[in-house]
Write a structure and sequence with these properties.
By secondary structure, this protein is α+β, with helices and mostly antiparallel strands. It has 7 helices and 8 strands; from the N terminus they run ββββααββββααααα. It has an 8-stranded mixed beta sheet with strand order 5-1-2-3-4-8-7-6. Mean pLDDT is 80; it is low at 246-251.
Length: 282
């Protein structure tokens, strides 16, 4: 799966434009932390729309076209779009751009996102950021606690600070008060902050790495299962061959001559046929 995110400006309002592509579909998402608009197309539908709005150009590759859209669709785009309809339910506009002097176009027909989609694109990343910050705080508290223990050990050994102004009290998390100062910024302004987006990027990269790791582990498990099955099959064939083809090592004491002993130790034609039949059935 490929995902790109760009910050754009429409009518002096900031939005995030997200392109997601996998083997079967392409999805465009536009949101400002309050409203989410989405267009989802199959690969064939996307290719047909490209041809529809670029009739004078032959053999347009959808992947190359999407890459050019991703490069061009950023920053202030007011001069590049013609808005046909904009409401709380849909956002339809035509995007005009050039690649190496060649004019290209595409019409986005974005619908209002569902609550589940809003959660995926907006709510879930923000909650993941909160989780990340909580984990960072826990790690920082542990570091401070370990430093307090280290300083206490130095004091026990008789070492003293040469500068008393650097002395600190032992850090007790439960007694530490957080002085929260509201910034009174809008949700859109908070979400568009670069530091918030840096945290969102960390979370998204971690998710992708975990998904790739799980996928690789699953493929490795399936490969090992196939190998194990083949190994068991091979061992079973070898066991049958050993049991039915190899001569018996137990000699009947009633044998009185070498001819009789040779006759009993030889598998014979019937035993060979039985072995072949069993091996074919495996």
């Amino acid at each position: 799966m490929i995902e790109t995110k760009k910050e754009i400006v429409i009518d002096e309002s900031k939005y995030y434009f997200i392109i997601t592509k996998d083997e079967t579909k392409v999805e465009f998402a536009l949101h400002n932390a309050e409203l989410l608009f989405i267009e989802t197309l199959t690969s064939d539908e996307f290719q047909n729309k490209i041809v529809e709005y670029n009739t004078e150009i032959e053999d347009i590759d959808s992947e190359s076209f999407l890459e050019e859209v991703s490069k061009t669709f950023c920053g202030s785009i007011d001069s590049k779009i013609n808005i046909e309809n904009r409401s709380d339910e849909e956002f339809i506009f035509k995007f005009n751009f050039k690649t190496e002097g060649i004019p290209l176009a595409y019409k986005f027909k974005l619908r209002k996102g569902t609550p589940r989609e809003f959660c995926r694109y907006v709510t879930s990343p923000l909650l993941n950021v909160i989780e990340l910050l909580m984990q960072r705080e826990k790690a920082h508290i542990k570091i401070i606690h370990d430093k307090d223990l280290e300083l206490a050990e130095y004091k026990k050994s008789g070492l003293k600070l040469s500068r008393r102004d650097l002395a600190t009290n032992e850090f007790v998390p439960d007694k530490h008060k957080i002085n929260y100062a509201p910034s009174f910024r809008s949700p859109q302004e908070m979400l568009m902050r670069s530091d918030v987006q840096n945290f969102v990027s960390v979370v998204e990269k971690t998710k992708v790495q975990k998904q790739d790791s799980n996928s690789n582990n699953m493929k490795a498990g399936q490969t090992n299962a196939v190998k194990s099955k083949k190994a068991r099959h091979y061992e079973q064939r070898r066991a049958i061959q050993a049991n039915l083809i190899a001569p018996s090592t137990v000699v009947d004491p009633s044998h009185q001559n070498k001819k009789a002993l040779k006759r009993d130790l030889s598998p014979g034609a019937k035993r060979k046929a039985a072995v072949a039949k069993k091996l074919q059935n495996l």
